[in-house]
């Protein structure tokens, strides 16, 4: 469930694959929106000489619409469409702080054992690819007043999954 747009298809996915297990990664939505816009802007810049109109990003930058997309799965969990034992949450801050512990916790939420071989492979991957070895991704999230206005739209989502604010 990496993309909030995928939530529209969850009932169909679960109808076709009733035993599916879902993992939903969570991050401060304000930080996530800014990152997504920056990433897509870089893709467009690298692949085209034409600058798209600013409205191209409206679906991603409208906090009210984004908050509705993030609330849809909460409704599906609460009404039983998504069985709570088939969905796991993984928070970005926990994944960054201790990737192996975060993955073990996530797998346990959906009843899947993380094998010793998998644990070793994950530990090896992160040992060979430390986050500090990469330059940080930099982007703007807006001024404090804008962030405060947008934050209110995401309150339900952040409270429901205990997602800390990063900005």
From TrEMBL:
Name of this chain's protein: Sulfotransferase
Entry-linked SUPFAM superfamilies:
P-loop containing nucleoside triphosphate hydrolases (SSF52540)
What is the organism of origin for this protein? Novosphingobium marinum
Task: Tell me the Pfam families matching this sequence.
Answer: Sulfotransfer_3
- State the InterPro entries in the record: P-loop_NTPase, Stf3_sulfotransferase
